[in-house]
Write a structure and sequence with these properties.
globular; about 0% strand; about 110 residues; homodimer; mainly alpha; 2 domains; DNA-binding; 434 Repressor (Amino-terminal Domain)
DNA sequence: ATATTATGATCTATATATAAACCAAAGGGA
DNA sequence: TCCCTTTGGTTTATATATAGATCATAATAT
């Protein structure tokens, strides 16, 4: 039972989502799509698209990414995008990753 | 009244969210944080963090970005990140943007 | 091996995001 | 100017994401 769900967000997170929304809107305008048209293509309501473009933090990430993808915004390009490189590295590394995390007990080397 | 909300997502969107989640998990492990610790810092439940790391598309973008920010993943770097550059451009351009979009009426030049 | 801890999964109750239908106002074309 | 479209707000009903608790399993340290 969620007792209220009043989250706090870092300024960075807020800025990031705001910028992403603004970018979506710009891309939509550049492609001459109305809000309704883009919403239809993404399979969401116009109201949700409005909130996405406004940078509302509580929209589902799937809807946001879908809209971004449709208007041509690629978070993870095939090219030299820094994040993409890191993620590619991650993907390859995933199989080798430890499943759980342990606190590091500082090993004290006494027998010196 | 949402009649069911069964969305479809492009493969790209699914992959992007999956990769982001995997990257978050990797970053968390590299920082030796337990799921509970990271969840606490982000102000979310451990269950939600699990879904985020799994790449669940229906998590709120604010929670995802917050977690990513905490473990040091910057979607929009201050440096030469391509998306950042575009977004900076967008920000400056925002004030000049038209508020609404009009369909282009192909002007037919009859009197030729 | 044993104990301890992290993770994965399930279940319940509730807060809330969403779709849909409105309306008003702004914007752009003719 | 007038008309038509787009956008920005509501409001309402409902589907659902979330917090929190619990349990089983996996993983790690000693």
């Amino acid at each position: 039972m969620p007792k209220s769900i009043k989250r706090t967000y870092s300024q960075y997170s807020k800025d990031a989502v705001t910028l992403l929304g603004a970018f979506i809107r710009e891309a939509r305008n550049e492609r001459n799509l109305t809000a309704q048209e883009l919403a239809d293509r993404a399979g969401i309501s116009r109201g949700l698209l409005q909130r996405i473009e406004k940078g509302n933090l509580k929209c589902e990430i799937g809807a946001v990414f879908e809209v971004a993808t449709i208007v041509g915004i690629k978070l993870f390009e095939a090219d030299g995008n820094a994040l993409t490189k890191q993620l590619r590295h991650t993907k390859e590394k995933l199989a080798l990753m430890p499943k759980s995390v342990r606190k590091k007990y500082k090993r004290v080397n006494d027998d010196f």
